[in-house]
Amino acid sequence: MKATRLALLLLPLICCTSARAEYEPIDITHVRDKIKIRFHQKFAIVFDQRGNHLVNPRLLTTSTKQPYIVGEFTGTPKGNRMLMLQSTFPKMVRYHAAARGQGRRDWHRVNRMYGLLPNVASAEGFGDPIEEFVLYDFTLTNEKLNQNSTNETIGW
Known about the structure:
The chain has 1 helix and 11 strands. By secondary structure, the protein is mainly β.
């Protein structure tokens, strides 16, 4: 009984500690297959595909028949930042993201791995004054909706 009670008391501490690790600084110079998205930017991203990995992300400048990710990084009326994305790939697309705060040079990992379902818009809000995102490590997966959102405070 005491062990169960102790475990329940320590669980929030363990969860908070593991969640904070997601927002550790990251050196993006060593990250491959990444694309930067700036505040107030609308974009469409196309890729080359190697198996289930989406590589060589680049901004789309003309129409295409190949699948792509479209999005916008914008502000809300309350001053928060919002990253909205939608994928036209036939499978779920998983990816990582890092963010750089306004006036800062350091980057922080902001999620475990987001999931974009096919043709379903996804929006993630952030209270922090983020100036730029780097999206990277894009992977196609057959999984269904499991964890689609990982929004937490970055804590700058």
